[in-house]
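Researcher: We plan to redesign the surface later, but first we want a full-length starting point. C-alpha cells attached.
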C-alpha cells in the first residue's frame, strides 16, 4: 500500500463524483425523474437552506460527528483487543468466536429496544448502537489479520529470541496491520451507516434527527441535504483515516 495518493487518483475520484452529480442534476431538471420526490442537488440545497437555520445545521453536524466518533472509538478499541486476543490465544478464540458469530448477523437497528432499556434515552444508548456498527468489522479483521500472519515470519522472530507478548507486539500486530486497516475503514463507514438509526432514540439534534424530522414534515429537500451531508462527512473523514492508516502501515512495511 503506497503512502502517497497521486494527483491522478484524486482527479479520477472527483471526476466520477462530479459525473454522478451532473447526471442527477440533469435528470431532475429535465423531468426524467420527478423533482418533487427526488429534487436535484442544487435545488435541494437551495430550498433546504431557506428552511434551515445555518447554526442549527452546524449543531446537527457537530452532534452527529461526536456520536459517531465516540461510538466508533469504543467499538474499534474493543474489536482490536478482542480480535487480536482471539487470533493469538486459543482459549480466547474458544471464548469469544462463538459469541461473535452469534451476534454478528444481527443488525444494529434490532438492538434499539434493548439499548433504550439498558441505557435509557440519553447519549449512551446512541453510542451503543454505533459501537455495534463499528465493533464487528474491526474484531473480524483483527482476528483474520493475526491468524493470517506468515508463520515463517513468526519462526524467524523466535530464532532472535522474541516470544510471548514481544512476538505479538513486534511481529504479529504489524503483520496484521493491512487487514486491521481494512476493518477500521469499513467500521468507520458503518458507523455513519447506523447514525440515523442511533439518532432515532429520542434525539433532538443530529443529522439523523434532521432527516427524520424532515420526513414527518414532508420536506424532501431537507432529507436529500441531510443524506448528502452524511455522505460528505464520511468521505472527508474517511480520507483523513486513509492518510493516517497509510502512515501507520508505512512504519512497518517500508512505505
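Model: Full-length starting sequence:
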Amino acid at each position: 500500500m503506497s503512502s502517497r495518493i497521486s494527483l491522478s487518483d484524486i482527479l479520477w475520484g472527483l471526476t466520477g463524483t462530479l459525473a454522478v452529480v451532473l447526471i442527477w442534476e440533469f435528470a431532475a431538471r429535465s423531468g426524467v425523474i420527478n423533482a418533487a420526490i427526488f429534487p436535484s442537488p442544487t435545488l435541494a440545497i437551495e430550498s433546504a437552506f431557506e428552511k434551515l437555520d445555518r447554526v442549527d445545521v452546524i449543531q446537527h453536524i457537530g452532534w452527529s460527528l461526536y456520536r459517531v466518533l465516540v461510538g466508533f472509538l469504543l467499538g474499534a478499541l474493543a474489536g482490536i483487543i478482542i480480535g487480536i486476543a482471539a487470533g493469538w490465544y486459543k482459549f480466547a478464540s474458544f471464548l469469544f468466536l462463538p459469541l461473535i458469530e452469534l451476534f454478528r448477523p444481527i443488525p444494529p437497528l434490532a438492538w434499539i429496544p434493548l439499548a433504550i432499556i439498558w441505557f435509557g434515552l440519553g447519549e449512551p444508548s446512541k453510542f451503543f448502537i454505533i459501537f455495534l456498527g463499528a465493533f464487528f468489522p474491526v474484531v473480524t479483521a483483527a482476528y483474520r489479520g493475526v491468524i493470517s500472519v506468515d508463520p515463517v515470519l513468526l519462526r524467524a522472530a523466535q530464532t532472535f529470541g522474541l516470544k510471548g507478548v514481544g512476538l505479538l507486539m513486534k511481529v504479529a500486530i504489524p503483520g496484521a496491520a493491512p487487514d486491521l486497516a481494512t476493518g477500521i475503514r469499513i467500521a468507520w463507514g458503518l458507523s455513519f451507516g447506523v447514525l440515523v438509526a442511533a439518532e432515532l432514540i429520542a434525539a433532538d439534534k443530529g443529522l439523523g434527527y434532521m432527516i427524520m424530522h424532515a420526513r414527518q414534515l414532508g420536506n424532501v429537500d431537507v432529507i436529500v441535504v441531510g443524506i448528502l451531508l452524511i455522505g460528505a462527512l464520511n468521505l472527508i473523514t474517511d480520507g483523513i483515516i486513509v492518510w493516517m492508516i497509510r502512515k501507520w502501515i508505512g512504519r512497518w512495511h517500508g512505505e
